[in-house]
């Protein structure tokens, strides 16, 4: 393995990559133990309690392996000779040794099972940031450094399996103040969730408090609880909510200091330092006993690439295409658009688009200036000198500006204004000027949602713009207008650009699958769900989306299959697919795939008997413990905050194979880190489902990376491919729109089926 000398002066520029992983080495090859038949979870818990001090218990399927910790301990179950080299056994043995190691260290062990979590209760970041303040008011509130430890066996390509200990630093909020004391301090807890005194049970959400009793409206077992025997749910937003009430005008200063203290724990360099610190401590502790005759030792932090046996790969960014013939290409989307114009310039029919602009009267002058700059551009600017009309090869824009008095009922005023405007006229796009504060309003109290629903019912896509954005600093206005113009053109049905692609078969479709639960409660049964499908060609051309019918959760799988059939039938007709054509379907999902969903897709594919179909099912997730560092990365300059950001954060497009069917991919580099205090970005874990009939993971991963450059919402590369990000946008908006009393989603399957209404 490559040894990384922590603290060594850097004298070269190439990436010095490492994983948040410490190499685990086993001394011993074989062990003796026993095997039992798994009967039930309750019986398993009973066995753990009985043998916790003397044996390692590991369940695998219907079997339970019992391994004595010391020589002379009894054999539990049928005697069995076992190999330490077995992945699951290595995991169980190392995990048990780690738990026993931290049980004797000055940490509070919050969770013994893997991932093991320990908390450093000697440091309360809140108390560190409130020196000089009356801290008695804050007693019971804490933010502690915490550390999760995962044992994994990696399977790098062309290399023997490697057992590692992953170290994942974080912060853990804690609230140990009963509800009655918070109420006495003047804090309104309506709408907040509460937990039992031991913190193990989420009780419900408070809707009212009367006579020392909290009435709950989202609960499992009880609909009320005494306010002296429950705690506020220990989430970071709840801690900050209470701090704001308790420290008053001191909150901005304290909040900034907390951000800085948290960054010293969760920033990339801080995490890198913590991994090396634990590696040094574990090495100093010497070999840890696993079982009778078997020990583990800790090696180096796992280096990547270079001379390391664990190799990395680098994904190539795509070229962008600006003409159907493919003869106009550029390696940057914005520069290519300025040079060549949009991909569909020759056949985009709305050369003088009709655009409705709706704004409160008090913003009229500012909006008119914004509209003129949108159409004509900002002279001598780097990004938007041409303006919307010339950049997208339009002839003109026919803009109708509607102003109105907001009055006291914002939603009604907005709705009346747009309905009056569209009563006798049609429009290709509507621009709605709103206030930033509207995003905090829900359902029919939110003017933007009410307006969007009203216009979408007429088949008109909507683009919102906050008045605070229109008033933003002059130096950033060219970027605002540039991305705004891109979204507008796309929502009107335009194709700004595609990516160069040469699919090796007749038809290749990339399909994003998602869903949204239509409920606000966390504890109730999942009742209604809408499935979401977005479909793209291999060159990234957006073909259509489909929001399935709202159905009961039990009917979701059948509705998913019906939705896929509907989409494929339409695309097949549109592109004149012939019988026995070769078709490849690549599915992207952002959450672990349920077996029922995988079976539904497999059943759907099997039903396509007219074509020769193969498919791949990819899960893309941030829910994993891996972090990649670059010790040679000094960071990128942040022009807004006048400092560097993203130190020790590796660049975009690095791939690391962690298993036969999975790899890590970096999609957030130093330039994409939002602020200098942004935590360490998490790479995306790409996993190929075992049921896939097309299994070239390198090809599929390169495709995922290329699709992160394809958003028509911004010229900046995304942190997820558009198959996922578009589905998430649709899901978020559908969840919000579904709370409106008269919302009708049918237009999403008719008038707006091929529109990018969600951008």
TrEMBL record:
Q: What Pfam families does this protein's entry cite?
A: Piwi (PF02171)
The residues covered by the Piwi domain are 429-739
- Which PROSITE patterns has this protein been placed in? PIWI
Gene Ontology MF: a single term: nucleic acid binding
Q: What SUPFAM superfamilies does the record point to?
A: Ribonuclease H-like
Q: Which InterPro entries did the record assign?
A: Piwi (IPR003165), RNaseH-like_sf (IPR012337), RNaseH_sf (IPR036397)
Q: What protein family does this chain belong to?
A: Belongs to the argonaute family. Long pAgo subfamily.
> What protein name applies here?
Protein argonaute
